[in-house]
Amino acid sequence: MASVAKNRFFAVATAGLLLMAGAAQAAPSCGNNSAGFQEWVQAYKQQAQAQGIGSRGISALDGVSYASKTINADRNQKSFKYSLDKFMQVRGGQTIISRGRAQKAQNAALFASIERRFGVPAGPLIAIWGMETGFGSFMGNQNTLSAVTTLAFDCRRPEYFREQLNAALKLVDQGTLSSNSVGAMHGEIGQTQFLPLNVLRYGVDGDGNGRIDLRSKADALASTANFLRGHGWQTGAGYQPGQANFAAIQGWNAASVYQQAIAIIGAKIDGE
């Protein structure tokens, strides 16, 4: 009888393994709509675990859903095709300059501290802050994990966003990101809109409370300065096109109009 029970156990276990393998094989490698998304997510758990993602991060995938609004936003990034003048108009460049000067005055100690620490002046940081979230007034309302997982599944840029997804799951493991955190449509986080991988690489504690929280003004601005320094920012050098630090600004965003807008707005705020 013991032998029969043992054989039944192995038969059930083998069947379970075959079912799991079949499910993994049935999952698509990517997709252009929601079809196959949940199957892909279940299969991806095994890949994530193999890359060192912990149980908290793996479990967070149970709550993700296909983010149709993220896909629509990804397919319709029209503003980067504008001329520089049109881009500045659409993004409210003059408003950012006037409000940015006020922000610089109100947060003088914070910006002085960041410049001492990272060598980055207030102007470009405020320009990024203003253009990304209107100085923290709107940081997005899309579930971050659903957005990043959807883009990792999407066939347009899967490898890029699978790196972002792994980073997001590591942030969940660390307690820096929760499964219900919200942000921008592509999974950007906080007051200056960091993608998850950049939070891992460049996120710093700017307010001294021992945590990295990109919804904190001080953390977000210090992390942005750290990002620019990590992309070659040289203390005291200029940041206009053709100057040494413009390359660091180019690291922030691939669109040339965005890069130029940061330089223009930053210089106006810094009084250049």
TrEMBL record:
Residues 37-239 form the Transglycosylase SLT domain. Keywords: Signal. Residues 1-26 form the signal peptide. One of its GO terms (biological process) is peptidoglycan catabolic process. It comes from the Bacteria. It holds the Pfam family SLT_2. This is Lytic murein transglycosylase.
